[in-house]
Amino acid sequence: MFSQTISEKSPYEYLFDEEQILITKNWKDYLSTMNSNSNGKCSFWMQNKFLKSDNCNLLSSQGFYNPSLFNLHFRNQILGIRKISKSEYELSSIFYFTSEKNELNPFAITKVLVYKIDNNYLFSDYLLKSTSNWETKNTEMINYHFPKNYEFNTDIAKEANNYLKKMFNLFEIKLDKNIDYFISENCFDVFSNSGFDFVPTMTTQEKCAFYDTSNNIIYTTKFYREFHRHELIHAINSKYLDANYYLLSGLSIYHDGENALQQYTFKELFQLLENHQLIDKNYRLSIKNSSNFDKNISTAYLTGALIIDAIIEKGGVKFLRKVLHEIKTEEDLITFIEQNLLRKNESIENWLQRRAKEVLKRNFKFKIEL
To answer: How many contiguous H segments (helices) and E segments (strands) does the chain have?
Structure first.
């Protein structure tokens, strides 16, 4: 066992007062409990009503970094500990690595709150404070949280709830807590409300969203309103935690609704792919070596969706559920495709190209409704 995150001593710790020194020790002790089989000891944290009872540290499962930001072998250094009140503090730290050329590569700057309880200092998720004055509306399966100036649409929320029920029946899913659905103004606020002061894409895109599989939390923006279908489909992940990444990614865009991925519909994504191939005639989707044809679109979604479509075509939803349970690694997936889905003497790349063209045909139909 070893800590995934390496704590580095700040060159300014000699300036810290006694309380800051104690908080620093607790933070480093907590990070030392992180390893490949654990997100750290929750005894260092206060309870968060949005997390499952045995979970803590929302930043470790927020969804932006996969695996967890705390499990990617970054170095972590405290930038500062600000006293807010007699018993409340804010701890800011940076996650980074250094290149072979000794260049600093920052990946995230985060903040967590710290509360003095008796003679101990416990950490708390920033989301609890940033959304403390938000409104909440509940449906049967979704708890919505949004700023007071947001105009909540009850009809869309009901539609999303009914959609979720239908999907859960289809995949035989039962969650142990409702989905908490946070609607922020824009992508910057999605990160900021969670406790990020910096991530590389925080200021480069207006729309973004993430699903926290560990706690059934959706973070999205007002652009997607109360029914962000792509993220709701990710709720399937909670049952198939070890399913192959391509399969789970493909499922999330396999529908005929708006915004399958960002602002694009399913067919528009494949039209973008075809347009790119008119320029780069050698470009092909691939499981092993495919690069993204657009900096904002991961081809894993398109590749996965084609695989999902073929699986359902071959054996229906029952077969898809079986595959989600059994296919975990990239090697598993390649072997499965070669043995079950290809024509004789057909390569996976040529098979993906053929099926991508079929998506754009007028008579293409989704094999299930998601």
So the answer is: 10, 13
User: Which pLDDT score, from 0 to 100, does residue 36 have?
Assistant: 61
Q: What is the DSSP string of 322-337?
A: HHHHH--SHHHHHHHH
Confidence of residue 131 (pLDDT cuts 50, 70, 90): very high
The CA distances from residue 317 to 57, 131, 170, 313, in Å, are 35, 39, 8, 9
Average pLDDT over residues 310-329: 96
Calculate helix-pair angle for 330-340, 299-326, nearest 10 degrees.
80
- Kindly report the CATH number that applies to the domain delimited by 6-126: 3.10.450
Domain ranges of the chain: 6-126, 135-238, 266-359
Size of the chain, expressed as the number of residues it contains: 370
- What is the structure's pLDDT at 67? 67
Q: Cβ contacts of residue 2 below 8 Å, gap of 6+?
A: 35
Contact by Cβ (8 Å): 91, 121? no
* Unique residue bearing structure tokens 């070596």: 289
| Contact indicator for 152, 146 with CB cutoff of 8 Å | yes
Global pTM reads 0.89
The pairing of beta strand 88-98 with beta strand 75-85: antiparallel
Query: DSSP per residue over 70-136, as a string?
Result: GGS--EEEEEEEEEEETTEEEEEEEEEEE-TT--EEEEEEEEEEEEEETTEEEEE-HHHHHTTT-EE
pLDDT (tens digit per residue) in 195-223: 999 999 898 888 899 999 889 999 999 99
